[in-house]
Amino acid sequence: MAPVIDIADARALVLQHCGVLPPVSMPFRAAIGTVLAAEVVAGEDVPPFANSAVDGYAVRAESVQAAPVELPVVAEVAAGAFTDHVLQPGEAIRIMTGAPVPDGTDAVVMVEDTERLDGGTRVRVLKPVDAGSAVRAAGDDVRTGTALYPAGTLITPAVAAVLASVNAAVVSVVPRVRVAVLSTGDELVDDGGPLAPGQIRESNRTMLHGLVHDAGCEAVDLGIVRDDEAVLETVLREAARTCDAIVTSGGVSMGDYDVVKAVLSRIAEMHWMQIAIKPAKPFAFGLLDDGAGRRVPVFGLPGNPVSSLVSFELLARPALRQMAGMPQPARPWVSAVADHGLGRRPDGKVHYQRVVAAFGDDGRVHVQSVGAQGSHQLAATSMANAIAELPDGDGVAAGGTVRTMLLWVV
Fold it and tell me: What pLDDT score was predicted for residue 258?
């Protein structure tokens, strides 16, 4: 029997063998959610020309210092248009937000500080303005040659918008990790039909597919593989050839005879672990050669659905996100308040209880147990949005603090 190891040692082993994927080039729109593999330097000014920050009238500031004053309106400029009229002292040009300011302009008076006269051919300016007022200079946001984003920057929608504004059409990024997800077992069905004796409905693969996607990876559903070693080996080798990682569930307990364990023990370099945690004590991790010299990580998760979820969150998810180059691979941990206490008994293990977390009026995160904590009781766990870490002992009393991993907070 394998020795029981600490969760930190298990995580270190996994992360050690899950390096960042080689970079690829892709259009910036498709790259949202990935991480830059190389620095981006601005190739253009933003904005590319001086433009108006408001709807109003382009003027020379000296022409309106004695406001209220009346000026002739000699032209009009909308966004996307321009005028070649050079503004002279004592003139005004009607201008819209974002439109290029005409030559000779050094200020814009907002429309709220004016009155339109004579059908728009003249304007009364009610307040003076200073030179530079409401004029956005070329390069006011970004100047050509500026180092915008270093390697390791997550491309959010806002970052992608900046890339668009400087015409960084193609960027070097760490690609999304392609993760093969599969379930094995003759007892599993997912066709929606009546259950035969001994059959159960597949659920882990459905959950893991969603967890992989939520981690920012591309989930590749390989379906249910029957208990046939030859078939499973073919599926796993093809997964290693076409994907960057493989996630399975079931068949990792000590003493189990399962086709997953039999096949992976033969074709991959595997570590079959017993981790001092509850749930999710059994866990397997290894590397499977893709036939071309690339070693693909394999995550063997427990078959009990809650154990599968917890081990994914604690071990697989941070490893997959590390492979994607994410600057913060792990979920955030906070010190939360246990409103009603979280009980347990000493057993030499760290317990990970599923809880509901929410911000309280005190600005702190407060947690409450979802109730049933059995490794097979997924219905209760499905309502959890956090996992509380309880060291070996008697748990946390009501009002005490507990280290908590946030899955999301509402």
Answer: 80
Low-confidence residues of the chain: pLDDT under 50: none
- Domain 333-406 bears CATH identifier 1.10.238.10: no
Q: Could you tell me the two tokens for 387? A: 């996992």
Q: How much is the pLDDT for 1?
A: 62
Domain 51-136 listed as CATH 1.10.1330.10:
no
Is residue 118 within 8 Å of 72, Cβ to Cβ? no
Q: How many CB atoms lie within 10 A of CB 398?
A: 10
Q: Is the dihedral of CA 243, 245, 249, 255 positive or negative?
A: positive
Helix (H) and strand (E) counts in the chain: 8, 30
Structure tokens at 142: 């970004």
Q: For residue 315, what is the DSSP state?
A: I
Domain ranges of the chain: 4-22+176-323, 33-44+144-174, 51-136, 333-406
The half-sphere exposure of 330 on its side-chain side, counting CA atoms within 13 A, is 11
Q: Output the pLDDT for position 187.
A: 87
Strands, E assignment, 78-113: 92-95, 107-110
Q: What is the pTM assigned to this prediction?
A: 0.90
- The CA–CA distances, whole Å, from 90 to 67, 71, 72, 73, 100 equal 12, 6, 8, 10, 20
CB 236 within 8 A of CB 194: no
Q: Dig out the tokens for 248 from the structure.
A: 């399975």
* pLDDT score recorded for residue 376: 87
User: What's the confidence (pLDDT) of residue 256?
Assistant: 56
What six digits make up the tokens of 386? 């956090």
